[in-house]
Amino acid sequence: MKSGKKPTKRQKIAIKEARLNPDNWLIVKNLPDCLHIVHRESGTIKRIVF
Prior knowledge:
Blueprint: H1 9-17, E1 25-30, E2 34-39, E3 45-49
Antiparallel strand pairs: 1-2, 2-3
């Protein structure tokens, strides 16, 4: 599993807009056009495109 960092307030808003719970996700990559996030427990990776 990739290690991630806690999301910032702006990133939490983007995760909420994707209908996910920001408390369960960590940020792996923060690119200008998308976020790569990993689930805290299961380790699944998702990409959120802005």
